[in-house]
Design a protein that fits this description.
heterodimer; A: about 120 residues; mainly beta; B: about 110 residues
Chain lengths: ~120, ~110
């Protein structure tokens, strides 16, 4: 079945870095755009970033632009989120999600499959 | 960036009654090229990831009960639960995917009265 499993979360000090991974299975990962969304404790959903199927096009939310980098390894069916210069306000559950746009396109649509999330806590 | 707002922040509805959630975008999310509204609705239950309910403003995702419906166009949208069930207790979010950043609304919490 279609599945996304995030990993790499944990407790990290402010200013440090962390890399999240999202392992995909059950669909043709290399043909799909992928996204990251986060949710701070007790707060709503915040869209972070999207990457095209081939990794050539990326968009970011202003709150993470210049600090976070999305990437993918289609040979490993894995999506990544490199997070640098972490701040307390980055504390959240981070979800990866599959974009529902047609395969091998540079269109970005709604998210039809979500992982269960991984928790990042930024604290000294 | 497109700002999404939702109303009300929360609502409590009796079982079997109708629940209506409104979503407004700061600019139109209707793409003239394909005449589609780039607007989705998600449901999130406590401790769970979001679940897609509605896309293109009014298309129900496979497996979603038909008591859920979406309507609206341009900048004003509505999610309706025609007959609230206990399992519908959740927070509901709208999201625009018209242009990046693909912003979410703040969410509407639905409870049983």
């Amino acid at each position: 079945q279609v599945q996304l499993v995030e990993s790499g979360g944990g407790v990290v000090q402010p200013g440090r870095s962390l890399r999240l991974s999202c392992a995909a299975s059950g669909f043709t990962f290399s043909g799909c755009g992928m996204q990251w969304v986060r949710q701070a404790p007790g707060k709503g959903l915040e869209w972070l970033t999207v990457i095209s199927y081939d990794g050539s096009v990326k968009y970011y939310a202003g709150s993470v632009k210049g600090r976070f980098t999305i990437s993918r390894d289609n040979s490993k069916n894995t999506l990544y989120l490199q997070m640098n210069s972490l701040r307390a306000e980055d504390t959240a559950v981070y979800y990866c999600a599959k974009d529902a746009a047609p395969s091998n396109s540079y269109h970005y649509y709604y998210m039809d499959v979500w992982g269960k999330g991984t928790t990042v806590t930024v604290s000294s | 960036d497109i700002v999404m707002t939702q109303s009300p922040d929360s609502l409590a509805v009796s079982l079997g009654e109708r629940a209506t959630i409104n979503c407004k975008s700061s600019q139109s999310v209707l793409y003239s090229y394909d005449n589609k509204n780039y607007l989705a609705w998600y449901q999130q239950k406590p401790g769970q990831p979001p679940k897609l309910l509605i896309y293109w403003a009014s298309t129900r995702e496979s497996g979603v009960p038909d008591r859920f419906s979406g309507s609206g166009s341009g900048t004003d949208f509505t999610l309706t639960i025609s007959s609230l069930q206990a399992e519908d207790v959740a927070v509901y979010y709208c999201q625009q995917y018209y242009i990046a950043p693909f912003t979410f609304g703040p969410g509407t919490k639905v409870d049983i009265k």
